[in-house]
Amino acid sequence: MSTSNEKNDKTWNGHDLDGKKKKEHWNNNDLEGKKWVDMNTKYSGATTEKSVIDQEISNETSWDNVDWDFVKEQTAKYILEKETQVISSEEKNKYEQNAMNHWDVFYKNNKDKFFKDRTYLHLEFPELNPMSLNRDQTRIYFSDKKENPQVQQSNNSNNNNNNKNNNDENEEVENREKEEKDEIVEEKDKWWKFVTELKKDECKGTVMEVGCGAGNAVFPILKINPEKYFYAFDFSPNAVKLVKSHPNYNEDRLTAFVCDIATQQLPMFIKDNSIDITLMIFVLSAISPERFDHVLSTIYKSLKPGGVVYVRDYGLYDLTQLRFLAKQGRKLDEHFYLRSDGTRTYFFTKEILQAAFEKVGFITEFSSYETRELRNRKRMISMYRVWVRGKFVKPLEETNNNNNTTTTTTSTSTQ
Q1: Which end of the chain is more exposed for a tag (fewer CB within 10 A), N or C?
Q2: E strand or H helix at 366, and its extent?
Q3: CB–CB of 285/311 below 8 Å?
């Protein structure tokens, strides 16, 4: 019969150690006398670090699901006690006014080498996967697109080593790739060679990405969505230049433009009620919370009734937030922090994310956490990553407050 401690350790590891085989197995003799250190307690300043005894780890997983409630319990009290130092209002306003400049310098320095391509979005968001591609079919396609995978992997490694300040998000993509490489998949069908891409005047749906950066999200899903037309914008002119200089940029399928959605309206060619799907991938967190209403109201106006917004962003108590806590002097406001390069990051609870969208009229289809445990075997540390994911829908039926009438519109949202 399992003891209480054994049960807790299994919960802490985030999975059933005895009931699930892992892809990598390690010899515990190599770890004799060592303990895995929980970085949550380290960064939050706890006097006693939580650890897992090496004999209880029969195998090694670098990336696994873990229970959110446990992460929350281990960090909340430390964060509430420690977070007292806040940047002055004068400094906060300075970074708000110069937000575009900091991101523009970021893309000028890093170009398109910083973030990895997000080749997984269509697997998470079904409206972006009209051909119902599975993970294996996706992997075959993106592997084929790499002319020299070994050189590509080497270049990515060098870029990651040279850019560690703002690179938290890449840990997720890198570990997804490691998991996928564990199984060899033979190339059986190059499905993409038989796909006909529709031009703008022929398209059957429209997608808009807010805060597109260098195009790491929009370009991977262009081919997978041949029937859709795409808009992508960023408030950094250098980021938009990178998108337009991409070899796959073609205005028959994609229009990129500069827009600061935190302070401006969308350009005239983005008409009200014209967009089927909007993507917000690690972008709302870079915007001051005071601007959320304006940003989301603007997106709401652009969507067709029945249109959807997909969100993926940083969650409260993510490892990145604990790093800010450890450094001190980085807090701009509640859940809002300053990076050393002048860019900013907000950490969401699912409730805050949901409330922000519902305030401007959206209906929440889901708002949830994705929480992972990342282990570094060499350093014997265990780290938690927390993201929020959401799908928000513009209702088919809207009430006109000016004349108290209700209008019903049939959805043309791409399924």
Answers
A1: N
A2: strand 363-376
A3: no
**297, amino acid identity:** S
- Report residue 234: phi and psi, to 5°: -150, 155
Give the H or E element holding residue 331: strand 331-333
Tokens 């790499």 belong to which residue? 146
In angstroms, the first-to-last Cα distance of the chain is 49
Q: For the chain (length 415 residues), average pLDDT per consecutive 10?
A: 38 34 44 59 52 42 58 64 80 82 76 67 90 84 55 40 50 50 49 80 94 88 92 92 92 95 95 97 94 98 98 90 79 89 91 98 95 76 86 82 42 36
As a whole number of angstroms, the distance between CA 108 and CA 106 comes to: 5
Residue found under tokens 């997720």: 172
C-alpha 45/C-alpha 78 separation (Å) is 7
β-strand partners of 64: 373
For the chain, the structural domain boundaries read: 4-68, 89-408
Report the C-alpha gap between 36 and 57 in whole angstroms: 9
For the chain, the maximum distance between any two Cα atoms, rounded to a whole number of angstroms, is 75
Residues 332, 86: contact at Cβ < 8 Å? Answer: yes
